[in-house]
Design a protein that fits this description.
By secondary structure, the chain is mainly α. Among the domains are: 93 residues; 85 residues, Leucine-rich Repeat Variant. Helix 1 runs parallel beside helix 3, helix 5 packs antiparallel against helix 6 and helix 5 runs antiparallel to helix 9. It starts with 5 loop residues before the first helix and ends with a helix.
């Protein structure tokens, strides 16, 4: 007579079992089978636990063991815990986002379709891999934000605010990008909070969105971003402050001139020129030896703008010719 593993029996039972966490005994049996020597038994155990996760991830997350002695079981448990966290995140996302969508039926229907896409790893992959690849999601996002419903643009912005605190990096990046194009000054609180996100793209996008909508009250928070460890975020903060017409303190600009990022140094030179203070030349002069040729040229132009430095290309050409000829004569004399 053929014998079936406990996990196989549990898997059959789970197809018709009511939602809810497994019993302590059932869970212990399934977890034990994760380390079974037979791969088929391990697969059955994993499938059983996944069904429990699908039914009630929050309840399962509280009782699923964190680790196991068997290496196979330990690896599968880590994978299962990640799945449980994702399921919990998706459930909480739906509750939070649908509440933000409000009562407008058209907006709720559109948002439900969007949530289905956001639960698809293939849809999120471009945004998860690289923030600059977000346009690849536009075939879903564009119809969503351009749809006609009573809530209009503010309704979309409310939904994006709810997604801006999501556990998924890709979802937060998508929300940040949509808010840049379809948000408003009313989203200031959510965008200021986004400037503390662990992802540099989202932090910078938050600052640029605030400046895009002319939110001058966010200037103090944006200035704090000038100290961000990521050079790109510093650059975005500079750009945002420039767009808002807020001057950066000379001391901060001097610090930026020493940045390892050429983009940050370049923006600092530009800001010094815009401030129009000839005293800045003392700090700009060392950058005549900057490794970036574009920055060296910018400093020369800054000297012309701030200090009256004049450059005559023809005179420089003649001077270089004289120096070349003198060197040639010296070299020739040395060979005689």
């Amino acid at each position: 007579m053929k014998r079936f593993s406990i996990s196989f029996v549990l898997a059959l039972w789970s197809l018709t079992a009511p939602a809810g966490p497994p019993s302590e005994e059932d869970l212990a049996s399934a977890v034990a089978d994760l380390g079974h020597e037979n791969p088929a038994v391990r697969a059955e155990a994993k499938a059983t636990i996944l069904r429990w996760a699908e039914a009630d991830p929050e309840a399962l997350g509280k009782v699923l063991p964190a680790t196991a002695e068997d290496p196979e079981a330990r690896a599968l448990l880590a994978e299962l815990h990640e799945t449980v966290r994702e399921r919990i995140s998706i459930l909480r996302r739906k509750d939070r986002v649908m509440e933000a969508a409000g009562k407008d039926e058209a907006l709720r229907t559109a948002t439900e379709r969007l949530l289905a896409s956001l639960a698809d790893p293939a849809f999120l992959a471009p945004a998860a891999e690289s923030a600059v690849r977000l346009p690849e999601t536009d075939d879903v996002l564009t119809p969503y934000v351009t749809g006609t419903y009573e809530s209009g643009k503010p309704g979309v912005a409310r939904v994006m605010e709810a997604l801006l605190v999501d556990g998924s990096l890709a979802v937060r990046r998508i929300a940040a990008r949509i808010l840049y194009y379809h948000g408003s000054a009313a989203n200031e609180k959510a965008l200021v909070a986004a400037m503390k996100d662990k992802d540099p793209y989202i932090r910078g996008c938050g600052a640029l969105t605030l400046s895009h909508y002319g939110v001058k009250s966010a200037v103090p928070a944006i200035k704090e971003m000038l100290k961000d460890p990521d050079p790109q975020v510093q650059l975005h903060a500079q750009m945002a402050l420039e767009e808002l017409g807020s001057a950066i303190e000379p001391e901060e600009l001097r610090r930026m001139l020493k940045s390892q990022d050429a983009g940050v140094r370049r923006r600092a030179v530009q800001m010094f020129v815009l401030q129009g203070d000839p005293a800045a030349l003392e700090h700009l002069a060392p950058l005549l030896d900057d490794p970036d040729g574009g920055i060296r040229t910018m400093v020369a132009d800054a000297m012309a703008a701030l200090g009256g430095f004049a450059f005559d290309p023809e005179e420089a050409r003649l001077k270089a010719a004289r120096e070349w000829w003198e060197k040639k004569q010296r070299d020739g004399a040395g060979k005689k």
